[in-house]
Inverse folding.
């Protein structure tokens, strides 16, 4: 006997809304239905739900997760694709960190320039912090 969407969601540690969304996007095969029309999920479906939840914690998107699941369903070993995706995400994080460090430096420089300008008693139209900021 299978599980309802609520029971499957609880067992997998996700929301029923997520289960419905993932099913509608093809990450899960269409669930069997009872005569009353209720979805019925199997242990195999639970494994897929748990996999999706874990993949999301690694920052993978639903389309990326779907491609991985599709590869597995087609009999391929998707670990090489997963490695490529993780490498891409790591590179994106590295770029973001670099941009954030540059932004932090710009903000710190602007704040110091504004303090220096204020100490010198210079007038500002609105605010020294923005008026004296130069981009690099």
């Amino acid at each position: 006997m299978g599980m309802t969407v609520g029971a499957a969601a609880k067992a997998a540690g996700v929301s029923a809304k997520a289960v419905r969304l993932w099913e509608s996007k093809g990450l899960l095969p269409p669930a069997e239905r009872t005569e009353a029309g209720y979805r019925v999920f199997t242990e195999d479906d639970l494994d897929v739900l748990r996999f999706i939840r874990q993949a999301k914690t690694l920052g993978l998107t639903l389309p990326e997760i779907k491609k991985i699941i599709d590869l597995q369903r087609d009999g391929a070993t998707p670990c090489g694709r997963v490695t490529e995706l993780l490498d891409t995400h790591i590179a994106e994080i590295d770029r973001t960190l670099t941009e954030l460090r540059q932004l932090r430096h710009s903000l710190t420089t602007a704040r110091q320039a504004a303090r220096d300008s204020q100490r010198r008693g210079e007038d500002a139209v609105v605010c020294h912090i923005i008026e004296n900021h130069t981009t690099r």
Notes: The beta strands are 32-33, 39-40.
